[in-house]
Amino acid sequence: MNDSPTTYARRLLPIRLPRVCVAVTGSDINEMVEKAESLVRDNPLIEFRLDYLKNPATAYQRLRRLFEYRPDAIAIATCRRAVNGGKFRGSVAAQLEILTKAAAAGCQMVDVELETAAALKPAEIEKLRSRASLILSHHDFRATRKIDETFDRMKQFPADFFKVVTTATSLYDNVLMMKFLQQNGDRHSLIGLCMGEQGIISRVLGLRAGSAFTFVAASAGEETAPGQITARELRDTYRIEQVDAATRVYGVAGDPVSQSLSPVMMNAAFRRENVNAVYLSLHAKSLDDLLRCVRDIPIHGLSITMPYKQAIVEHLDNSDPLTQKVGACNTVVRSQDGKIYGFNTDVAGIISPLEQRIALSGARVLVIGAGGAARAAVFALRSRNAEVFILNRTAANAQKLARQAHAKTVKRADIKKLSFDIIINATPLGMGANKQSPLDEKEIRAKYVFDLVYNPAETRLMKMARAQGLHVIGGIEMFANQGARQFEIWTGKPSPKDEMRYVVSRALEDRAASEEKTNGKPAAKAATKAVARTANKTVQRKK
Ligand code: NAP
Questions:
Q1: E strand or H helix at 462
Q2: Which of 47, 82, 438, 474 is deepest in the core (most CB within 10 A)?
Q3: What's the gap in Å between 518 CA and the centre of ligand 1?
């Protein structure tokens, strides 16, 4: 077989490229092509990371055969050198030969690093470019800095696409990347994104800022760059195909947020109600970074989570009376002129599930804890004229809250002698692998037990209460209810509360199953599966 570049006619690029490019890796070409075959129907744009192969020269025949029976595949050949963050240890000349042969085999695009371009002769670059569209790339694996300077250097070389990839070390780095795309996207074909967990905004919103496409991993564990998300996650959770200039942007901001189920729940709600919106996970390492980002990116609303619920209050332009009373804000609405307004929907998250079951006026309620969630519970219950008792590890914190909300405090030693209508756990006891309970069996003397902890779905406290025949409410109800209220504030529409609760329950089940499989190591990606199932369920229901 002759591998001469002239043997095969160049496969042309379609006028409209897909928005998502799946990076495919593998230790041998058969594995790589098999993966590509399984992906290509839904993801026609595929990057073959030839630098992952032990011997890239084995790839051409197999690639050529793939393109013969999958002419719809649009392929990028990449053979990134180790010095530039890839795995290829050969010379620039060897890299050039591999890319040239991959183009001859039918790859319509080749990726050439800026450093490689600088080492090649102009005639060599032109020759390669006559055989495939050239993506000139630059990766900064440490930070987002000097984007314009880097781009000025890149423009010295002829290219069909300029790919600028940086690392986000703050949320604001996404703003810098999107400004770069917006300023240069109408004169040049650009691909731009930030790597890292904090770079997710650029992966989703970079497309509408002017990036020709974005890169995703074939599946969890196959990432070729830090922070890369999977094709499925980008489609099912973030609904990338629908994101356009009119798409409203929402997100959950906190530190950490990687385990938050809010993106899964809220994106499912937006999909169910046909709201043109996307909900992102915003890892803000400081409140300052978050607020700077909110000023520059037209974010329409935020869910605020730990540790910023209290600290954000003083930055709000206005807030509802509950936020002021509780001293914590978990919901932000940003108006068009950039002003931010705060709401507290944790209160509704606690009160709604209770009011559906029991009259709160005059009810005797024990709240365990005196932190943010306990404050929301105590003020909400007091506003409904419930008689509230607070039990907390640090007595002084309980006393302070009791004074502010006109509630009572109670000592642990007295709990056994008292009975309540409702007991609410607002401490982390019972969360995650921690199988503790804030009360012993004999201390649970109530009609209803409401555990605000939602992971796991069934805590030790809930199990003990159920065994005694008590009514039990789990933290998922609070989570879904506070999210439902956020949805209503942001969209003005009734929320699909049942769907939201369902998605969260399934995501937690998936997470528990994966954690069991991986011996207790958290599996962050499991939640995506639940959304995919819900998406299918929704489609089936609508048929
Ligand atoms: P927080 O502000 O940090 O308050 C934690 C409270 O729990 C404090 O009163 C603290 O007592 C007490 N506490 C912490 N560790 C303890 C321990 N080992 N033993 C006894 N008491 C302990 O947290 P938060 O925002 O109120 O959240 C509390 C819990 O509520 C979370 O862990 C979460 O599970 C749940 N939550 C659920 C939702 C939902 O949507 N379902 C929403 C928010 C919160 P000290 O005063 O002595 O420090």
A1: helix 460-467
A2: 438
A3: 27
Residue 84's contacts (CB-CB under 8 Å, 6 or more residues apart) are: 113, 115, 116, 139
pLDDT, tens digit, for every residue of 174-197?
Answer: 999 999 999 999 999 999 999 999
- 417 a catalytic residue: no
Per DSSP, the three-state class of 48 is strand
Residue 230: predicted pLDDT: 92
Amino acid 298: pLDDT: 83
Q: Are residues 56 and 88 in contact, defined by beta-carbon separation less than 8 angstroms?
A: yes
For residue 315, the tally of other CB atoms under 10 A from its CB is: 16
CA–CA gap between residue 446 and residue 121 (Å, rounded): 81
User: What is the arithmetic mean of pLDDT over 193-211?
Assistant: 94
What single-letter DSSP state applies at residue 235? I
Q: What single DSSP character describes residue 377? A: H
Over 70: is that where the pLDDT of 534 sits?
no
In DSSP notation, 344-358 reads --HHHHHHHHHHTTS
Measure 434 CA to ligand 1 centroid, in angstroms.
13
Average pLDDT over the chain reads 92
Q: Which residue has the tokens 């890319």?
A: 99
Q: Tell the burial category of 499 from Cβ atoms under 10 Å away from its Cβ (0-12, 13-18, 19+).
A: buried
Residues with CB under 6 A from ligand 1: 346, 349, 369-374, 392-394, 397, 426-429, 431, 452-454, 475, 478-479, 482
Pick the catalytic residue from 309, 325, 525, 529.
309
- pTM of the entire structure? 0.87
Note the pLDDT tens digit of each residue in 427-483.
999 998 888 999 999 999 999 999 999 999 999 999 999 999 999 999 999 999 999
Sign of CA dihedral 182, 188, 191, 195: negative
How many whole angstroms from its chain centre is CA 383? Answer: 36
β-sheet with 408-409: strand ranges across: 408-409, 387-391, 364-368, 420-425, 446-451, 471-473
Percent of the chain with pLDDT over 90: 83
Phi, psi (degrees; rounded to nearest 5) at 225: -150, 150
